[in-house]
Amino acid sequence: MNQGNRAPFVVAHRGASAAQPEHTLAAYELALDEGADGVECDVRLTKDGHLVCVHDRTVDRTSSGSGLVSEMTLEELKALDFGGDGPPASILTLGELITMVLDRRSRPTKLFIETKHPVRYGALVESKLLAELQRFGIATPASADHSRAVVMSFAATAVWRIRRAAPLLPTVLLGESSRYLGGSAATTVGATAVGPSVKTLREHPELVDKAAAAGRATYCWTVDDPDDVHLCADLGVSWIATNHPGRTKSLLGVD
User: Fold this and answer.
1) Are 40 and 13 in contact (CB under 8 A)?
2) Pairing with 96, which of 14, 132, 145, 231 sits 20 to 30 Å away (CA)?
3) pTM for this structure?
4) Which of 23, 55, 146, 204 is catalytic?
5) Residue 141: exposed, middle, or buried by beta-carbon count in 10 A (0-12, 13-18, 19+)?
6) Does 204 participate in catalysis according to the annotation?
7) Which of 13, 23, 50, 244 is catalytic?
8) pLDDT in tens, 94-129
9) How far apart are CA 54 and CA 98, in angstroms?
10) pLDDT (tens digit per residue) in 198-245
11) How far is CA 208 from the centre of its chain?
C-alpha cells in the first residue's frame, strides 16, 4: 500500500455517504461513478451467519426497523428499508458489494473491510470474512500491493487473526491514540498500515513518517474538510477515507 510521492488515494467511506444513505448500493455506485480508488464498509454477522454492511450494533439509526443485527436473520434484515428519505434500499451483503466492485472492470477499486469488535461472534467474523474473500478469489493476492481487499479493525486481535491466516492480505490497525498507533502494536500484529482519525493526525502529524519508517502505509479517516484533505496530501498519507469521494478527488487534482 505504499505509494511514493503521489497524492493520497481516495476511499469512499460507507460509499459516497454524504449524498446517499450509507452502506447502500446507491452510495457505492455513486462512489465508483465519482472515481473512488477504494470503497470502505463495516461488516457484522447476522443471526444466520451472513456478513452484512452495517456500522452500528443495531439497525435503529439507518433503517425502518429496530433491533440488534446479530439477533436478526438476513431475511428479516432484507425486509427493512435502509434508504432513509430517498428511494427504498435493501441491506447490502458483503457478497453483493464485492460482486458490484469486481464487476466494474474499468478501474481496479480496492475494498476496505472493517470488522467490528467486540461482538458476540468473536473470531467467527474474520473466519467468515476470509471464506467470503476466498469465494471470490481475492483472499490470497500475489502481493499486498495488488490485493483487491484490505481488512481493517480497531481490535488488534482481529488484525492478528487475518495476518496469521492470510499473510498477503493488507491490513490496517485503526485507532484514536497516537501512542497506540505509533508504538509497537502495529508491529506486534503485523499490520501493513496504521489508521488514525483525522483529529489524531492533526495533533500528531509525525505518525505518517513513523509509519513509513517502519514500512507501513497510513490510512486516515474520516477526511471531509478541504483543509484536512490538503493536510493529508502534504503529510504523505497513503489513503484517505471520505464521505465526499468526488469532491475530495477534485481537491487533490486527480482523476
Assistant:
1) yes
2) 145
3) 0.96
4) 55
5) middle
6) no
7) 13
8) 999 999 999 998 788 999 999 999 999 899 999 999
9) 15
10) 999 999 999 999 999 999 999 999 999 999 999 999 999 999 999 999
11) 19
